Amino acid sequence: MKDVSLIVYPAADLIETKRFFRELTGADPYVDGSQYVGYKCGDMEIGLVPAGDKREPAALAYWTVSDIAASVQGLVGAGGTVVQEIVDVGYGMLVASVKAPNGATVGLRQPPKT
Fold this sequence. Notes:
Elements lengths: L2 E9 L2 H12 L5 E2 L4 E5 L2 E7 L9 E5 L3 H10 L3 E8 L5 E6 L5 E6 L4
Parallel strand pairs: 1-4, 5-8
Antiparallel strand pairs: 1-5, 2-3, 3-4, 6-7, 7-8
């Protein structure tokens, strides 16, 4: 695992939440879709998803990994439970989430292979 590089927040109202995060980050989103809105903040990415999304109801930090399947398998082997199976969210970006034995959920993301 490399680092935490993405934090995703659910948004009941994407328009209002985009206005808030534009003020917070001082920038317009670099991705502005109906299912994902993304802001770059240095090496960190802040994402907004519709609140009806199947992800966790609170902010979720995503760890960037080079092999998401091996990472999920390793975390499950260490007592974790898969919350979201590996899914391609677009352009080869793979994400998944795993719940730790203490109940905390961590996100994993694997950038597209080049």
